Backbone:
């Protein structure tokens, strides 16, 4: 029989639907250039497939260290940042550890904390201001606690107030900082600190969601603790090759981020002009809004018009809310036209 805490949980899942315009998972609307894909495949063809990947993922860790001014000892890579979040929570959260996080946020955090036996301490907040509830988090944070924060926050798009990350570190808590959407907020990669662990992904701004590559940056001491929990060989050789080539082509990522941010601002302005909805300020590659009409009805009306978005109304404090990823200009135009007919 399963553990009672697991038996009481629901699995993290997503309903499988197909649509002509897919704007439900915060993916980049821009596929990787064929020439870069062929570079990856050319390297993969030359490599023996009967041999395990490099145990240390040295090539990618070295490339990340060079790109971000770190050393390989500060970095782990894995099968998406979710795997590394699970490993880190396993290393730093034990039975009864208080874990503070704003809510609504990425639901996987609370699941992983619960599985580890930690004590979830959600800070409920309203997303209207576009800021995360820093003061409320600081009021509970101390040296016995772990804080998890995603900035920009999924699914609301809000961010920490300026200087907020340093204030969280100064609270004495261990801070798990998820910057999956940080590139869209033009954030600065934070300096290493003994109480800070930073998670990044190649899925969003880099446009490599299909290959599942994440990485975590920490002091060498904290990285050693994470390694004790992290699964071995969790990143396959082909994904490692692709991420390494991506780092050699950062200008492509930067150009795509600029296009997406420009489109975000255009879409936000257009959404503000639509009656019966209220958008939340966003610094991510998506926008979330609350509607007067049932979000489930709007979701189905959009789907009937070939547009797939995310119904986030099941999150705390997000009743009648939908989240829409920023797509290409053509996708966004089609979504806006459909939405005007659906609200």
Residues:
């Amino acid at each position: 029989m399963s553990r009672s805490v697991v038996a009481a949980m629901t699995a993290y899942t997503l309903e499988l639907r197909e649509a002509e315009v897919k704007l439900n998972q915060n993916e980049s609307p821009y596929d990787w250039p064929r020439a870069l894909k062929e570079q990856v495949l050319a390297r993969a063809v030359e490599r023996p497939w009967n041999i395990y990947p490099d145990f240390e993922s040295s090539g990618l860790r070295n490339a990340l260290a060079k790109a971000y001014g770190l050393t390989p000892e500060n970095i782990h890579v894995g099968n998406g940042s979710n795997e590394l979040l699970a490993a880190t929570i396993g290393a730093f959260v034990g039975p009864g550890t208080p874990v503070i996080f704003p809510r609504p946020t990425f639901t996987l955090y609370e699941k992983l904390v619960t599985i580890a036996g930690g004590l979830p301490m959600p800070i409920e907040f309203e997303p209207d201001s576009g800021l995360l509830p820093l003061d409320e988090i600081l009021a509970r944070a101390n040296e016995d606690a772990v804080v998890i924060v995603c900035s920009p926050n999924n699914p609301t798009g809000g961010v920490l107030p300026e200087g907020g990350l340093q204030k969280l570190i100064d609270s004495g808590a261990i801070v798990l900082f998820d910057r999956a959407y940080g590139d869209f907020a033009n954030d600065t990669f934070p300096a290493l600190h003994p109480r800070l662990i930073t998670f990044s992904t190649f899925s969003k701004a880099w446009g490599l969601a299909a290959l599942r590559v994440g990485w975590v940056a920490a002091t060498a001491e904290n990285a050693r603790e994470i390694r004790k929990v992290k699964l071995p060989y969790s990143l396959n050789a082909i994904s490692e090759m692709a991420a390494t080539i991506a780092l050699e082509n950062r200008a492509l990522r930067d150009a795509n981020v600029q296009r997406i941010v420009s489109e975000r601002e255009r879409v936000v302005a257009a959404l503000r002009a639509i009656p019966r909805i209220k958008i939340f300020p966003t610094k991510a590659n998506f926008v979330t809004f609350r509607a007067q009409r049932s979000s489930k009805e709007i979701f189905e009306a959009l789907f009937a018009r070939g547009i797939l978005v995310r119904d986030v109304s099941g999150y705390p404090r997000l009743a009648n809310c939908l989240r829409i990823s920023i797509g290409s200009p053509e996708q966004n135009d089609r979504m806006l036209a459909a939405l005007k007919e659906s609200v």
Q: What stands out?
A: The CA atoms of residues 23 and 163 lie 32 Å apart. The first helix runs from residue 4 to 7. The radius of gyration is 20 Å.
